[in-house]
Amino acid sequence: MSNSAKTEAVLTLHRFGMGPRPGSIAAVGTDPRGALIAELDRPLVLSAAASLPTSAKAYRTVADANARRTARAKQAQQQAKKQQMAAAPAASSDQGQAQAQTEGQAQGYSEQKDAAEMAAKQAADAIPDPGRPIYLQEAKLRTEAALAADIGFAERLVWFWSNHFCVSANRIQSMSGAYEREAVRANALGRFVDLLQAVEGHPAMLFYLDHLESMGANSTAGINRSRGLNENFAREIMELHTLGVRTGYTQDDVISFANVLTGWTLVPPGADPQHGGEFTFNPRLHEPGGQTVLGKRYEQDDAEQGRAVLRDLAAHPATATHVATKLARHFVADEPPPALVEQMAKTFRDTEGDLKQVAITMVSSDDAWRGPPSKLKRPGEWVVGMVRATGITQVDPVRFTGGQELLGEALWRPPAPKGYPDDEASWIDGVGRRLDVANYFAERITGMADPQVIIEDVFASQVAPEVKQAVGRAESRQQALALLFMSADFQRR
């Protein structure tokens, strides 16, 4: 393979994949565009996913544990109160003694209350929270899929769509990983409308955007309970997930769409131990009657009303432009070439939102390859690229997710519904923290990773001369590895 072919292969792995790993340059070969497209033909499944609970099962598991914790706490409090009553001294008839006894009892009662609360807490804590282990198992599986991929283009697409349609583990930890598997991964290479329907109807999204009890003012529940409408879910779908900001919809459209979506909720886990946590449509919450959204009337009286609006939002020209812009910004440049965006948007419109074809259009366009590797990787991409270069394929999810959090991109914990940003300005101030992570990682793997081997074999010597020189002059292998990981060859794509 010529040096120019190796250079293009390395660019392919950085810009569109997860970074070079042992054997990946050979996997790209002399036809990088063909290799990227070929990867999209492989099933986007996780081999060990069968061992993980569904999102509904995970939700029920945590709800059941919380119920047991509450019951144990109440039992402990009740037992403590019984013991305190049995040990309480008899009241004195002497006034002075009675006053002293009363004051002593007040202090004793305070101490007893504290002791009862401590006993309740200890009883509850004896039942571990299953949400954290589930989250870590999901994180491990997801990360190791990225480490093992030949190129990682398909995995990058999963990561992109998961961030575009983000939920937060801070709100719904037990479901965050399963949501990505069930709604995003299963539809990332299909049609946008199917992906949109899957994510918006997923209980994790309904929970995250506080939609579970949104009810129409004239619905049965709304009249009986005097509760209100939550516009948040509808607004985020239009502004973040489909049309984009300032694309012609009004506040009236948001309110109408929010009414359309009333009734979308989940089965309470306590009410149904078999189906708790699953999506359901509750007509008691749904605003009756037709609604007008973006000038079109929707007369359905069930969940199909919301699905019909989602289908039309998916087909809207503004959605095509919004999606194409975000994809091109993520993979190619903070300010993507307008011609590339238009090519991708046209494919989106012409294929009715075929996301695989949109991705193929992107990597087939010369505009996606012309720019130098100057885009700063997000922390998650950089960390995975660093680990991939060493050939490591298994990770400790506690350490890995801790590193992600330190770098400001905690896994499945974006700061807002718009997800993590994709521009350099948002991440450049955190590059200093990457040095700490690089040093720590280099220290751990010093005995198993050789920086010269990474340069010559994994990167096929396609790194800047200054980097080779700095690595060669390093005072220790740990320092050499850290310098290599912090170089632009690792940081940018």
TrEMBL record:
Biased segments, Low complexity type: 73-108
Region span, Disordered: 69-124
InterPro entries registered for this protein in UniProt: DUF1800
Name assigned to this protein: DUF1800 family protein
Annotated source species: Bradyrhizobium cajani
